[in-house]
TrEMBL record:
Top-rank lineage group of the source organism: Eukaryota
Gene Ontology annotations for the cellular component aspect, listed alphabetically: cytoplasm
Molecular-function GO term, any one: phosphoglycolate phosphatase activity
Protein name: 4-nitrophenylphosphatase
Gene that encodes the chain: Mo03765
Organism encoding this protein: Mixia osmundae (strain CBS 9802 / IAM 14324 / JCM 22182 / KY 12970)
Residue ranges of the region described as Disordered: 1-36
Gene3D superfamilies: HAD superfamily/HAD-like
InterPro entries: HAD-like_sf (IPR036412), HAD-SF_hydro_IIA (IPR006357), HAD_sf (IPR023214)
A Pfam family recorded for this sequence: Hydrolase_6
Amino acid sequence: MRCCPRSCQQRDDDARGRGRTQTSRRGSLPASTSSRPVRLTDHLLSLFSIDPLRSTTDLTTGIDIVACPSRADMPKELDEHEDLAGFLAQYDSFLFDCDGVIWVGSEPIAGSVDAIRYLLKLGKRVKFITNNATASRKTYVKRLHDIGLHEILHTDVCSSGTASVDHLASLLPRLDPAKRDIFLICQAALEEELREAGITNFRGGSDPKWNEPMPLQDFSSIKPDPRIGIVLLSFDMHFNYRKICQAYDHLAKNAHCQLVLTNDDVEVVVGQDVACPGEGLMAATLRPATKNPVTVCGKPNKTLWDSINREGKMDSSRTLMIGDSLATDIQFAKNAGLKSLLVFSGATSRDALRSSDIRPDFVADSLAIIARLGRP
């Protein structure tokens, strides 16, 4: 079921008004009406029959995000009157989205660093998860260290990119060795994660030749290759027609070839005023080429939880997901069977929550509510 235009537009306005830097939103495209022109993204989604609120994956099914007005069953508010120590004692592991929860733009959100330090002092397991595959885990660790969280390790960060790498690591051994090479559409960070996992049988990606424009009406550079068994698509600022053509040819000609997406976010919001197509719109150009299931590895799909907890050390009943987005963070928690805390320091306002049927278990203004417990 699609969300109603009014609630979607309200969510769009809330996200833009808070000025998040390069954050992604799923399902934020309003339906056209007679008084409003049809947006290009609406047209493309309709053309390729893509529901921005539903992820297509062979690993997670039945995602049905509805955003129609409903004010019943509002989640529990965490404030200074709550037994916060007792609340935290219910959980051993805490998963944090980054943008809108830990920081906005280049600045940490007040109380976020102290809250995480307090949880670490209590001996809690802390993980940072993001749909952004354009930055490596090393980059995220450095940024977390720069804001004072020096205890954070490389293994404490998981992105839609690392989840995709984990998925490929489990998939590749099951494929025909002669048909399991990878064609990449991505930026350099994802290549770094692939190499770190020992996966090197790929081409495309950040190779400069793929950024060159094709001569007009000349398709001679597009070469069939039966060895390609996977097209892995991530957000790419150099996405172009050459890459589309080559990836499309692999998917259309190689019956065994699978399309894997790091995430399916429809839009990327940069600053306060600029909304740009996200990976979901890039993927729309390739989906018609394949009859195979499309795997989406980032939030809100359970594939990401499988990657985070691949060693089985976290009990889902004692894990809390903390995020600022209903459609990605909170829906991810629901799909993974986790409890969730929505903070209003990022993309979602209280009004947007009231008009949505996606319900977190708890809400709070920000992580500052947890930071207070650690103060003398």
